[in-house]
């Protein structure tokens, strides 16, 4: 790697000049499709670029140049509109290649993984299968897991558990695929495979479950991004699991194992399964993180999806400045130029809001400009008018809050200044619901930690003293939100802990504690997945929790 980055400076001028000629020839061909000479010239230049990159051993850049050359060779003279996608991918790939080489020249570090998106765009445009994320990753796949004692369970009970755990995985996978709080979905998926691993640890097919459980644990702890390739990987994992459950001797494809091991190596996870897999397979830390790759992807390809969030953050800073200034004016602690400054800030913010499509918010602020102009002339603020200005600012803040949550701007265009009270009230109601949900999640997390401490302490009931009270508080919050069924399930868990763990002298069996943990995990996923705010998003999660509560021997309403 060092030799490639060092050698680049020796051939830089010739390499970049050749790439410039290739880009110019390609642009000429795009403008004059009937003339095949510019295309042939571009192909000749691309062959030279590939040869130079091969000579200096820049593997990733050479692979991208090879893909560019293959796509350019495939395009015939006189190509019509059907080749526009392929030509666009070629132009973009050349741009990315140049930016990548400039980055190597500046930082002396190669990250060929950065080129995979451009390579896969080219391959997709040409009708080829994309390369996997782990293409540049290597690991020995023949390592064997150290002997582990599997939990002995009755065959019928085990079959029921496997069905329920696969259902749990599918529920989490559905939320992950739909981008409905992917992190919550991954938690549920990781929980399901961790339980499956305890059932299949000593069987030949358990190797895949072990590695998959470690990968899901790494995806969860490392908060890896929900990329399309990972959605496809975890969907494929469900299909492989189906085959494994029907054939205990089933051996998973090696490329699937490699993809899963790549996630373990990529994530900064210190979970027990991830650490065990790293040790057995000798996985060294990678010189990058998933977040670093994402930042570099965006830097090479232009603005990313975070543009709107950055913009709304900047607007919030401007709003905070306006609110501080209004507060100081109301207290009478500002100078004569404060009204001029307030007018300028409101005018600037109004224009910005209009540019991003928040016309109602823009109108709300622009409607206050004549009032502030009057204050400039009189050097005094009218306090009833000051209250109206404060209401307008809060109205704008609610609109920006909607923008940050990703609501469609078009859906908010019907709001006008006359509806500011309703809009602000709706914003405050949403904020209040979010607070209640956060408190409920904190209550469930507290309960899970307390149960873990109870187990580690060999059944010391002191750790559980406040758990039923905490869960009943969560139950009350969910009743307030109109989530009666979720509230009933949490109340059932609280009753089980009170009667079977606090009032009973004997600890529940390990199986019953695992089932209680499944119920709490499902309810936690329901809360984290936004189902309280949008109940239609995860309709079957409460069914999953109800199965676990029913397995605890508690009645559950339909």
Automatic annotation (TrEMBL):
Domain Scaffold protein FimL second: start-end pairs: 155-292
GO BP: any one term: phosphorelay signal transduction system
SUPFAM superfamilies cross-referenced by the UniProt entry: Histidine-containing phosphotransfer domain, HPT domain (SSF47226)
InterPro entries registered for this protein in UniProt: FimL_2nd (IPR058661), HPT_dom_sf (IPR036641)
Any one Pfam family match given in the protein's UniProt record, by short name: FimL_2nd
Name listed for the protein in its UniProt record: Scaffold protein FimL second domain-containing protein
């Amino acid at each position: 790697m060092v030799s490639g980055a060092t050698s680049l400076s020796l051939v830089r001028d010739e390499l970049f000049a050749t790439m410039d000629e290739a880009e110019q020839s390609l642009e000429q061909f795009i403008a004059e499709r009937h003339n095949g000479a510019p295309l042939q010239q571009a192909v000749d230049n691309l062959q030279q670029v590939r040869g130079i990159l091969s000579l200096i051993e820049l593997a990733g850049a050479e692979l991208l140049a090879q893909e560019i050359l293959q796509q350019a060779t495939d395009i015939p003279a006189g190509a019509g509109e059907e080749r526009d996608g392929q030509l666009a991918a070629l132009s973009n790939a050349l741009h990315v290649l140049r930016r990548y080489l400039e980055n190597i020249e500046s930082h002396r570090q190669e990250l060929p993984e950065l080129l995979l998106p451009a390579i896969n765009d080219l391959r997709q445009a040409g009708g080829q299968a994309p390369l996997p994320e782990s293409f540049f990753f290597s690991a020995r796949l023949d390592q064997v897991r150290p002997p582990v004692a599997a939990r002995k369970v009755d065959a019928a009970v085990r079959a029921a558990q496997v069905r329920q755990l696969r259902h749990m995985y599918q529920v989490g996978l559905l939320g992950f695929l739909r981008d409905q709080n992917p992190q919550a979905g991954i938690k549920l998926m990781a929980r399901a495979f961790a339980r499956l691993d305890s059932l299949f640890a000593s069987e030949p097919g358990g190797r895949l479950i072990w590695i998959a459980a470690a990968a899901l644990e790494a995806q969860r702890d490392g908060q890896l991004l929900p990329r399309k390739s990972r959605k496809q990987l975890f969907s494929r994992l469900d299909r492989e699991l189906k085959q494994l459950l029907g054939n205990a001797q089933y051996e998973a494809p090696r490329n699937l194992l490699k993809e899963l091991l790549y996630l373990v190596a990529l994530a900064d996870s210190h979970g027990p399964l991830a650490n065990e897999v790293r040790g057995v397979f000798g996985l060294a830390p990678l010189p990058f993180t998933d977040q670093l790759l994402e930042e570099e992807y965006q830097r090479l390809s232009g603005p990313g999806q975070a543009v709107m969030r950055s913009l709304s953050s900047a607007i919030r800073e401007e709003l905070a400045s306006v609110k501080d200034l209004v507060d100081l004016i109301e207290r009478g602690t500002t100078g004569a130029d404060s009204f001029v400054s307030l007018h300028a800030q409101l005018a600037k913010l109004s224009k910005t809001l209009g540019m991003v499509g928040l016309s109602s918010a823009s109108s709300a602020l622009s409607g206050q400009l004549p009032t502030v102009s009057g204050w400039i002339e009189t050097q005094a603020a009218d306090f009833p008018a000051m209250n109206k200005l404060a209401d307008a600012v809060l109205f704008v803040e609610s609109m920006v809050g909607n923008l940050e949550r990703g609501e469609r701007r078009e859906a908010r265009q019907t709001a006008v200044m006359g509806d500011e009270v309703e809009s602000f009230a709706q914003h405050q109601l949403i904020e209040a619901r979010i607070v209640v949900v956060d408190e409920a999640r904190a209550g469930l997390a507290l309960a899970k930690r307390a149960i873990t401490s109870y187990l580690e302490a060999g059944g010391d009931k002191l750790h559980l003293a406040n758990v039923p009270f905490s869960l009943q508080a969560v139950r009350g919050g969910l009743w307030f939100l109109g989530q009666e069924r979720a509230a009933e399930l949490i109340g059932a868990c609280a009753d089980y802990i009170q009667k079977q763990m606090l009032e009973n002298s004997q600890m529940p069996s390990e199986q019953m504690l695992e089932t209680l943990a499944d119920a709490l995990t499902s309810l936690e996923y329901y809360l984290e997945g936004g189902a309280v705010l949008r109940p239609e998003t995860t309709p079957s999660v409460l069914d999953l929790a109800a199965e676990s509560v029913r397995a605890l021997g508690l009645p559950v309403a339909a």
